[in-house]
Amino acid sequence: MNLKFKISKFFKNDGNNIDKFILLSGLMLRLMYIYYTPIDVRQHDVHQFFQNQGGHSDYILYLYENHALPDFDPRTIFQFYHPPLQHIICALWLSFVKLLGFSIEDAGVNTLQFLTVFYSFLFAVLACKTFKRLNLTPKTVSFCTAVVTFHPTLIIMSGSINNDMLSSLFGMSAIYFTVKWADKKDFKSIIMIALSVGLGMFTKLSVGLLAPAIAAVFICVFIKNFSQWKKFILQFLGFGIVCVPVGLFWSVRNYVKFGISPSYVPELGENSEQYIDKTAFERLFNWQLFQFESPFTQWEWFGASYNEFNPIIALWKNSMFDELTFFDGVITMQAFCTALFFSGVLLSLFSVAALIIMWLNDEVKIENKLLITIISVTIFGNYVNFCLRYPQVCTQNMRYCVPLIFAGAAACGMWLDRAGGNYEKIRFKITCILKKNILAFCGFSVFVYIALGF
């Protein structure tokens, strides 16, 4: 009886134990993923260690061997133009492994993925804490936490040792502390926002894209509490003093020493095998059904009949499976991948609808509406612009849009909790469909990424 009582109490959805169970399950799934995923599989611009091929691997090794930032134009070696925080941490990890008496060529390099597993797990934890601060009900927090925890992008990125996962973590940290500051309006929270954005930009400059959403919250809170303007002016000054030097150090250094623009991105050019030779209009408005015949990103160099070109369809595909095809020739397993793909598409469409409906709900604070909406518009708008400016298949990747995972889950959470109105029966049916789709999405994701190991 006592054991039965404890088990039933654990699974009672009190908004705490269920969330812990989801997060720990996600951690186990990530550890399983890196167990069967070698350091040279499903990476982005990492290249082989100890092969002098450039990429993030050589960047890490350069810092490990020289204990200093590059003293040459970083454009001369592939990927060295990136801010160095993730690479510094990896270099320190290699030094720690060597200090323990292990070989960096074996144990050192092959354990770097433990860092990114920790980043991905902590991202989910912070997302869960943010959902609670958005005043979602405990049951809804669990649904939203499950979406983030079991999202395929964050599973894949848990094994990717470039700077994407760490920068995404700092971005999530900035979002969490922004929501917290809007509630408490304390100096500590705004300094944590500054550190999150600053360190995020010291990892990858794209974290700065969160600035418009954060600034909108700052302005909104300032206007609503204008009588305390002196307090907020001091807080904003503190934010700038902390954030600007940390976030812009790398860009300013490279501009002064080497004349590198902060917006510099290496281009592949029209001779690339993955170049997309289509107009912007065709890329955005061609929705022919042949693009949905496979749930996987299409590459001509892998034998496909076309290069994936529609940025939105491409985003749906690689958010589920990165840029590769899973389970070649295993039709049953590919059927599960197709189910995961379409459940993800449906979830994203729900998110867009929920984002719009959120503005019709007076119960949601204006600060939270602004934060979630501006994050969504800014990140997605920058993604589409990036795809059109650099028309290559590899630019159409969910790793450039990770904040959308949180924003979409949060918008769905608002729908599940507060989608009021006069059409209660319709709302109830749609809510049931959304819940079932979330469960299906999470279930298919867990199944696919466990099966991938076999």
Description:
65% of the residues lie in helices and 0% in strands. It has helices at residues 2-11, 17-36, 55-66, 85-99, 104-110, 113-133, 138-149, 152-157, 164-184, 187-201, 211-224, 229-258, 280-285, 311-321, 331-358, 366-389, 403-418, 424-451. Helix 6 runs parallel beside helix 9. The chain is globular and about 60 Å long. It starts with a helix and ends with a helix.
Features:
single chain; 18 helices; 65% helix; mainly alpha; 454 residues
Which helices and strands occur, and which strands form pairs?
Blueprint: H1 2-11, H2 17-36, H3 55-66, H4 85-99, H5 104-110, H6 113-133, H7 138-149, H8 152-157, H9 164-184, H10 187-201, H11 211-224, H12 229-258, H13 280-285, H14 311-321, H15 331-358, H16 366-389, H17 403-418, H18 424-451
Helix pairs in contact: 2-6, 2-7, 3-4, 4-5, 6-7, 6-9, 7-17, 9-10, 9-11, 10-12, 11-16, 14-15, 15-17, 15-18, 16-17
